[in-house]
Amino acid sequence: MFGRKKRLPYTLSESLQLSTKLTDMSFTVFDTETTGFAIETHDRLIEIGAVHVEQMEVTDKTFQTFANPSREIPAHITTLTSIEQHHVKDAPNSLEAIKNYFQFVEDNNSNCWVGHHLTFDTMVIKKELHRAKHSVELPSTFDTYELIEHIMPKLKALDLEEYAKLFGTKIFERHRALGDALTTAHLFVEIIKRLERKGITTLADLLRIKNKRLILL
């Protein structure tokens, strides 16, 4: 029974036409909170937050869930996030929390995922699914940090809040999954507006930015 991973029924991983206009696409901007950064070993997911972006507008469609990490939340994480043990005590386990997040994405027919320093958040999802002996094909993803690098290649790395201030976008509750997802969503919309002024208007254009960065790494 446990020799093979169970594949989650996630149906939005199909390819889009590369010529699709960015303004015709929908995005899920999401963020995670964890018990720490050692997600490959002992740290665990404790919260997922997400917001739906449609036609390059941040909507009022949001998602938030805690996840029970089956371990104590370190004091410094509680200080940073304000998430305490009682918040996660009766929360769903990581697999159920992720399934609920996927359902939010599918309910909104989202085409792609967006995040800030997204590699970590997608790794959290993948590692928690791996522990639960599940697998899934994730959709295309875009990282606001990488897109900012394309616009301002000489800009030193900044905190999410500092980027939001630089781009003149809204800032929501920090170091909470939904708050950071909302901050990232507004930042993403402004980034896309600036990229469109440079002629980057389709999915193919956005993927070229991502692929060019991967080649340079």
UniProtKB/TrEMBL annotation:
Q: Name one GO cellular component term.
A: cytosol
Domain spans labelled Exonuclease: 26-197
Q: What class of enzyme is it?
A: transferase
Pfam name, any one:
RNase_T
- The superkingdom listed in its UniProt entry is Bacteria
The signal peptide, as residue positions, is: none
Q: What is its EC number?
A: 2.7.7.7
Query: What keywords were assigned to this record?
Result: Exonuclease, Hydrolase, Nuclease, Nucleotidyltransferase, Transferase
What stretch or stretches form a coiled coil here? none
One Gene Ontology MF term: DNA-directed DNA polymerase activity
What GO terms describe the biological role, i.e. biological process, of this protein? DNA replication proofreading
- PANTHER family for the chain: DNA POLYMERASE III SUBUNIT EPSILON
In its UniProt entry, what is this protein called? DNA polymerase III polC-type
